[in-house]
Design the sequence.
């Protein structure tokens, strides 16, 4: 058996191995590349890439936290295949994660619970504790803590695709950390990756990127890259931006000179909509696209005590979902930030 076969237990590549081992851990295995770089298999769907020479920055790239969001999984798996085939040399220490293998096999967003609400310790709370997503979130937190130890700096890109359409197909979310601003080089990376919209989140949360921001000090982003499709049905030509930008990072190459004719559209949250209980009424259609704008005065939601109307300028809806428990988020209203 070749070293590559050993890395994947005879499966053709990392994705195939992750799917085959979705219901059990994979024992640690190490592969040394021709130039001396190493690939360490830490567990099912978790690889650490260790170059011979690297700057002090470390990179986490995750995909498949929702199992039906397959295009980013295929992009990352393809880049790893390029590295294994010797098409380029590794230049940055990197942790690659396929987040939820069990839901990837199932072809659904999750098995029991939305794993992207179970980080920052939420996995240890009732009713999540002991479920597949909770156990996986706890494992990913532990691996990321170990990877971040003694890092000069840390960057995390958590890659997703969306269930619903969007007037802005590709956009990133920047988790809230008190007193923090987005570095210019991260704005340049998003434009390089063909992600022209950034949403600044207004409070800390329990997503994977919020965990790495708040607990590991990472510059983290959740990046939405298009529409959900089954494995093998993605038009990967629509993902060349993120593929090119990640390949450059993996190789340890500097950021290219940014195209200043392009500007990043930055949005901020103006209102968080919560399910307030039995009298809550949400006046946004179930099939509305992300970034649909509503004119001033439009009633968005109401209950027995409150009627929320759009303010003096238009507000756009993000992630609307009326089918959430009382107290949880139904959606966000956002507005483009004036530069």
Sequence:
């Amino acid at each position: 058996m070749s070293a590559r076969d050993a890395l994947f237990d005879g499966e053709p590549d990392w994705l195939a191995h992750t799917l085959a081992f979705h219901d059990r851990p994979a024992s640690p295995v190490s592969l040394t590349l021709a130039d001396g770089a190493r690939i360490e298999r830490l567990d099912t769907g978790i690889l650490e890439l260790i170059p011979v020479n690297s700057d002090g920055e470390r990179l986490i790239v995750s995909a498949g936290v929702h199992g039906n969001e397959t295009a980013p999984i295929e992009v990352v798996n393809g880049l790893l295949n390029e590295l294994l085939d010797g098409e380029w040399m590794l230049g940055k220490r990197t942790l690659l994660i396929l987040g939820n293998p069990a839901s990837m096999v199932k072809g659904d967003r999750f098995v029991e619970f939305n794993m992207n609400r179970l980080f920052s310790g939420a996995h240890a709370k009732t009713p999540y504790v002991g479920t597949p997503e909770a156990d996986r979130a706890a494992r990913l937190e532990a691996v990321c803590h170990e990877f971040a130890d003694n890092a000069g700096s840390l960057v995390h890109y958590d890659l997703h695709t969306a269930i619903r359409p969007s007037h802005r197909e590709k956009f990133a979310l920047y988790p809230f950390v008190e007193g923090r601003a987005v570095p210019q080089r991260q704005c340049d990376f998003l434009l390089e990756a063909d992600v022209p919209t950034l949403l600044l989140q207004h409070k800390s949360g329990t997503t994977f990127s919020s965990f790495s921001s708040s607990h590991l000090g990472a510059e983290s982003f959740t990046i939405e890259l298009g529409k959900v499709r089954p494995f093998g049905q993605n038009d990967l030509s629509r993902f060349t931006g993120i593929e090119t930008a990640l390949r450059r990072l993996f190789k340890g190459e500097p950021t290219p000179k940014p195209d200043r004719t392009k500007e990043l559209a930055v949005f901020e949250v103006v209102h968080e909509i919560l399910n307030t209980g039995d009298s809550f009424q949400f006046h946004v259609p179930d099939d509305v696209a992300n970034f649909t704008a509503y004119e001033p005065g439009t009633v968005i939601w109401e209950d027995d005590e409150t009627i929320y109307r759009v303010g003096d300028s238009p507000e756009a809806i993000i992630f609307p979902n009326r089918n959430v428990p009382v107290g949880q988020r139904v959606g966000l209203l956002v507005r483009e930030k004036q530069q």
In short: The chain has two domains: 3-251, 271-336. The chain has a mean pLDDT of 95.
